[in-house]
Structures are given as C-alpha cells and as structure tokens.
Amino acid sequence: MPDCLFCKIVAGDVPAEIVSTTDHTVAFRDINPQAPTHVLVIPRLHAPDAASLALASPEAAVALLVETRRIAMAEGHDSYRLVFNTGEGAGQTVFHAHGHVLAGRDLTWPPG
C-alpha cells in the first residue's frame, strides 16, 4: 500500500529502529514507548488488522506471534503484554496489522 507508513518501513523507505527482521515480519521500537520495552512487530504483508491478517495468511499471523515471543525473550522478559488494537475506537492509528510488545514494568489490569 503506497500510503501506508508501516509498508514504507518494511520497504526501507522510512527509517525505524529495527529490532529484527524475518521472512514474514519486521520489528522496531515504538517512537512513543509506553513501557521500557515497547516494540512493534508487523507483518511484511499488508493487512489492516490482526484478524484480517489471520484470514489472509494464517502463516504470516503465526509468524508474527512467534516473533513477538522471541523479541520479548531476547529483550530479557519472560513476562510481557502483547496488544493488538483493531479500529479507531480501540486506538489503532496505523491500519497495518501490528502487535505491541510491552514489558519492563508492572502492567496493570485493566489497561487504560
């Protein structure tokens, strides 16, 4: 998608602090972190949200989930929160599926 910020990051056209890349994912640090560790994991394939990604490519959705765990562990966390916002009302601002890996502090429930 030519106007998608995350597609531009995947393509290397927009800089980001890349944490990891795989055949299916790109992970980078959030520019507005909400925890000491806040990494976004996105699929290379454009899909507007996590459920759409799972319908379009279950393999890419599984790869994204596996990579979120690998990143949390690599960052030194066996406890972490994984967040998928779906739709504007839930706080989604970039309509390219992405998971937020949050860790490094106590995370209360319910979230705000």
In short:
With 112 residues, this protein is of the alpha+beta class. The protein has a single domain (5-103), classed as HIT-like (HIT family, subunit A), CATH 3.30.428.10.
Mean pLDDT over the residues: 96
| CATH H-level superfamily title | HIT-like
- Supply Rg: 13 Å
Low-confidence stretches: none
Which structural class should the secondary elements be placed in?
alpha+beta
- Strand portion: 15-25%
Q: What can you see in these coordinates?
A:
- GO terms for molecular function: catalytic activity.
- It comes from Aeromicrobium endophyticum.
- This is Histidine triad nucleotide-binding protein.
- By secondary structure, the protein is α+β, with helices and mostly antiparallel strands.
- It has a single domain, classed as HIT-like (HIT family, subunit A, 2-Layer Sandwich), CATH 3.30.428.
- It contains 3 helices and 5 strands.
- Strands 1-2-3-5-4 form a 5-stranded antiparallel sheet, sandwiched between helices.
- Helix 2 crosses helix 3.
- The radius of gyration is 13 Å and the shape is globular.
- It starts with a helix and ends in a 9-residue tail after the last strand.
- The mean pLDDT is 96.
